[in-house]
Every structure is written in structure tokens, then in C-alpha cells.
Amino acid sequence: MGRCQKVSTKHQQKVQLYDLFAQIGKALSSPGRLELLDLLTQAPRTVEELAVETGMSISNTSQHLQRLKQAHLVETEREGTFIRYRLANPAVSKLWHTLRRVAEQQLSDVDQALDNYRERRHEFEHISAQDLRLRLQSRDVVLLDARPAVEYESGHLPGALSSPVETVEQLLTSLPDDKTIVAYCRGPYCVLADEVLALFAQAGKQVARLEDCLLYTSPSPRD
């Protein structure tokens, strides 16, 4: 009887561990919360800014953020009257990207869903990070960051120019005609680079997209 009780106690302790692990899974079990994490991998934001980006109400956005905070996936810092959210740890960004990769590999519907979302996905030449480095060295490309300015300011690829879609018209006359315009955004699940490249392509520019760009992440938590 004593041995059975000991085994039972050990199993209960093991279950407690799995329950803690499950807290992370439960926090990730909402499309809305995943979208918030995706945005926070790019830059810290306030509730109000996140609500605008996602199209959710401020109340709903706040509830999702509180759920993520309870799981210690995000943390907050006060700026005057505003509360700014950021990832609690760089490992959270890695968790989000790992989740995406597993979904890509295991769920056949992901590819079709991505085609539906990114209508121009196959319209532009794709360039790898290695090819981009070589072409930057030879100076035959111009690299553009198509994300919002707040994300560019939080971190961007070396040599990239900030080019949200609303600024493209200003850049059209200033960029050289003999160089390929390469744009990137938040990675393969983002349409911002497609929108920017479409405008340059319409203007007769040679364009390409850096498809899988994970070289930038939300800054590490402050000491």
C-alpha cells in the first residue's frame, strides 16, 4: 500500500507539471491572442495601438492581453497614462515561430489559407537572405522595410529604408531605376511587402520579396 501511495503522489506531482505547461497552451488557444503575440514580436505597443492594428475593441484586446499576461507571455510598462505591452522573454517569440512551423508541416490547409490571404503571394520573385546579403554587397538592390514605422524603429535589417505603403509615392522618384527593389515585412504571413512591391512594379521597377525574414524580434525585457 505504501508503494502505491508513493507512486500515486509522484504521478500527481507530475500532473501538476503538465498542468503548468498546459497554461501556456491555453493562453495560445485563441486566434486573437496569437495575432497580438505576432504584433508584439515586432514592437511593444499600447492596448489602443493593438486594438487599431487588429480591429478588435479595446475591451476585447485588453482581455486577451490580460490572459497572455497571466501566463507570463507578456509584460507591461507604464508610459505616462498609457500601458505598453511587450513580450516577456525572447523565448516567447521563438515559441510563436515554432508553432507556425509545426502548423505549416502538419496542417495541409495552411498553404491554401495563405494563398487566400496573400493574393499576390506568387506574383513576385522571392529572394533568400543569403542572396540578399550578396546583392547588398554588390549594391544592385535597395532594401525596404514595409512594416509600420513603429516596428521599423524598434528594429530592422541593416541598410533597410522605412517604406510603409503610404510612403511609396514619395520614394518612387528618389530610388534608382537600375536597382532591384527588395521588400520585407513581418514574414511570410504578412501582406505589407506585397502591397509595397505591387506599387513599385506598377511603376516599372524590378522588384523581389524577402519572404522569410525572422532576423528582427521584439527587444529583450529591460533589466
Main sheet properties:
5 strands, parallel
Strand line-up in the sheet with most strands: 4-8-7-5-6
- If helices are DSSP runs of H or I spanning 4 or more residues, what is the number of helices? 10
Low-confidence regions: 215-223
Q: What pattern of helices and strands is seen along the backbone?
A: HHEHHEEHHEHEHEHEHE
What shape does the CA trace take?
elongated
Rg estimate, integer Å:
21 Å
Terminal CA distance: 51 Å
Strand content: 5-15%
What is the helix fraction of residues, given as a range?
40-55%
Question: What does this molecule look like?
Answer:
Strands 4-8-7-5-6 form a five-stranded parallel beta sheet, with helices on both faces. Strands 1-3-2 form a three-stranded antiparallel beta sheet. It is elongated and about 80 Å long. The protein has helices at 2-27, 31-40, 47-54, 58-70, 90-106, 109-117, 129-138, 149-154, 168-172, 192-202; strands spanning 45-46, 74-79, 82-87, 125-127, 141-145, 161-162, 180-184, 207-210. The chain contains ten helices and eight strands. Helix 8 links the parallel strand 5 (141-145) and strand 6. With 223 residues, it is an alpha/beta fold.
Task: Briefly characterize the structure.
Helix 3 packs across helix 4. Helix content is 52%, strand content 15%.
Question: How are the SSEs ordered, and which strands pair?
Answer:
Blueprint: H1 2-27, H2 31-40, E1 45-46, H3 47-54, H4 58-70, E2 74-79, E3 82-87, H5 90-106, H6 109-117, E4 125-127, H7 129-138, E5 141-145, H8 149-154, E6 161-162, H9 168-172, E7 180-184, H10 192-202, E8 207-210
Parallel strand pairs: 4-8, 5-6, 5-7, 7-8
Antiparallel strand pairs: 1-3, 2-3
Helix pairs in contact: 3-4
